Amino acid sequence: MSDNALNDADRREAAISRLAHELRRALEQRALFELEVLNSRDHAIAQAAQIGELRHRLVKQAAILETRRSEFSIHRENHLAHIARLESALADASRTAALAESLRRELAATRGSTTWRIGRLVMLPARLLKRLLRRG
Amino acid sequence: MPQFSIITPVYNPPREAFEHCVRSVLQQTNPDWEWCLANDASTDEWVSPRLQELQIQDHRIRVVNRSTNARIVAASNDAIAIANGEFLVLLDNDDELHHDALRLVAGEIARQPQCDYLYSDENKITPEGGHFDPFEKPMWSPERLLAQNYTSHLSVLRRSVVERVGRFRSGFDGSQDYDLILRVIERARIVAHVPRVLYHWRTLPTSTASAASAKPYAFVAALKAVREHLERTGVDAEVTEAGPSLARVHRASAHNPLITIILPLNATQHRVYGVDTSLARNVTTSLLEKTTYNNYSVVLVASEQLSDVELNEIRAQFEPRVDVVRVPKTYSLPQSINAGLVACQTAMAVLLDQHCEFIDGNWVETLLGYANRSNVAMVAPVIVDEFGTLLSAGLGMTPEPHEIAGGRHTSDLGPFGMFAIARECFGVSTRCVLIDAVQIKRLGGLSPNYSTRWFDFDLACKLHQIGKHAIVTPLARVRAFDQVLGDGPDRNLFEARWGRLVGRDPFTRTETRLRELVVD
């Protein structure tokens, strides 16, 4: 076998070895990429799951808030009704007080009138007699 | 034409129980029914006049009288013969329907008009009328149905399908319902579950409700019904007894596909039966010595911790059907499994943890027997620990994420026999599991964000999202030497992703019953 042929064989051997090495590297790279793809898929699904979970909690929270809002609304309505009742009672009380005041004034005016005083004077003997009879 | 025909064969029922039964029918909130009763030549004098009286009392009640006693199958078929309803409702002459039963079933039919078979939850009643033992059933679980007639009561079947399959068959007395259901589901377009207790099964000394042993002939008939069902559906299998009223279906593998066993290994030593053992060597020795299945290749996912010498020795045992993937020692278990998944070139793969060793040699054949069922992405054996305690018979999500049967003794059959039978479940442990590798890769493999076995639950949730579930079978058992599930940051991560699924496991619904099974 000539030197040239030997050199060709060596070169081919070296090339095959290099290619095999490159192929191994490429396969390792591919495996790494595939692993990355797996991880990315998992990440995407996990993110979607977390969003789903947040949405679920949001809906749940919204439902709780809606319940609370509705309860608060009922509570507020009850309060307003109570206030209205109180105000109405207060107005009634004011009206009654005003009436009482006007009656009191009317009474005072009556008691301060000349007619009332003359009447009391006229009725004085009778009152005294009544008092004596009570003591007796 | 009424929507429902209630089918009741009558033979000398206890009078009081029968009157309760009558009341439960007459009080139905949905009036769209007829009641077809077949008097199977009852010898009790009150029966015939009472049935006549009922017929006069309500035009929806129709009675057919047999001149001779021909037992339950013939009587039931006589009742079906006079039925006009779209659906047949099976009711025994001493049991009761919930007053809303037909309304709720009609609601489910309206939701899924193509339903051909519906079943509901059930409970039992004492002769005095006390309710107990509620059975909150799983969603449609065809594998479980082969092991036990879990659908049982209340069963509602489309009449046209019942007519097509030839009504009840003689030779199955005591399990005639089971035989009919198995024949109906072969043709049913949709099977639906109404998750409410709609049937009250009276426990009388002579009824199967009181004890499975009350009617031993019924169980023999049940096994026969399952065998014939498997024959009709072209499944080569052996059916044996697994416990009281429980059957085991040993399928023969139809084909032997090439599978890849993905086995992450590191240098961990563990006390096994009191001896410090290399887990890597223990699992590979067990795999080689026990496994009877031949058509597999192995992907060894070896951590840098494992020495080259040890790895080469292990590798040599599996040559030429072995690939080795070296991973950094910082890789977690799910990361290592994912690296193995990338190297897996087959459609089916087994994920195997180095903490395991095999008890049954035909474990691969057994798992492969379930692999071709629709919507099943994973099949797993039952996992036990070195002391014979169950570690996992599937994963459940109700009331909390837990390993089903964890901490129970292997002789424990569990609620309604569930530990002793192959059945559908939410997920399974990936300590040892046959997976649909293509599907799992599409889902991104196992999540590397978990450092503990919570990644099993995460994977189960991912599969649940796309309508897939798992099967666990006690016909294959694997021993594992690792610890059970713990809480911690992984639990919080899981809750952040899948909290909405906690407590909503369609396969294990009995919250109070399963509360005691939670493993912390």
Which helices and strands appear, and what pairs or packs with what?
The complex is a heterodimer of chains A (136) and B (520).
Chain A: H1 3-112, H2 114-135
Chain B: E1 4-10, H1 15-26, E2 33-39, H2 47-57, E3 61-65, H3 71-81, E4 87-90, E5 96-97, H4 101-111, E6 115-125, E7 131-135, H5 142-147, E8 155-158, H6 159-165, H7 176-185, E9 190-202, H8 216-232, E10 237-243, E11 246-251, E12 259-265, E13 269-272, E14 275-278, H9 279-290, E15 296-303, H10 308-318, E16 322-327, H11 333-343, E17 348-352, E18 356-358, H12 363-371, E19 376-384, E20 390-392, E21 395-396, E22 402-403, E23 423-425, E24 432-436, H13 437-442, H14 454-465, E25 469-480, H15 489-498, H16 511-515
Question: Explain this structure to me?
Answer:
The complex is a heterodimer of chains A (136) and B (520). By secondary structure, chain A is mainly α. Chain A has one domain. Helix content of chain A is 97%, strand content 0%. Chain A is rod-shaped and about 170 Å long. The model of chain A has no long low-confidence stretch (mean pLDDT 92). By secondary structure, chain B is α/β, with parallel strands linked by helices. Chain B folds into two domains: 4-211, Alpha-Beta Complex (Spore Coat Polysaccharide Biosynthesis Protein SpsA, Chain A); 259-515, Spore Coat Polysaccharide Biosynthesis Protein SpsA, Chain A (Alpha-Beta Complex), CATH 3.90.550. Helix content of chain B is 31%, strand content 28%. Chain B is elongated, with a radius of gyration of 26 Å. The A-B interface holds A 31, 34-35, 38-46, 49-50, 52-53, 56-57 and B 325, 338-339, 341-343, 441-449, 461-462, 465, 495-500.
Give me some keywords for this one.
heterodimer, A: 136 residues, mainly alpha, 97% helix, B: 520 residues, alpha/beta, Spore Coat Polysaccharide Biosynthesis Protein SpsA, Chain A, 2 domains, elongated, disordered C terminus
Task: Please give the largest β-sheet of chain B.
Answer: 10 strands, mixed
Number of strands of chain A: 0
Poorly predicted segments of chain A = none
Q: Would you tell me the overall average pLDDT of chain B?
A: 89
Q: What is the SS-derived class of chain A?
A: mainly alpha
Rounded mean pLDDT of chain A is 92
Mind summarizing the main beta sheet of chain A? none
CATH topology of the largest domain in chain B: Spore Coat Polysaccharide Biosynthesis Protein SpsA, Chain A
The CATH class of the largest domain in chain B, by name, is Alpha Beta
Total count of helical runs of at least 4 residues of chain B:
16
pLDDT < 50 stretches of chain B: 511-520
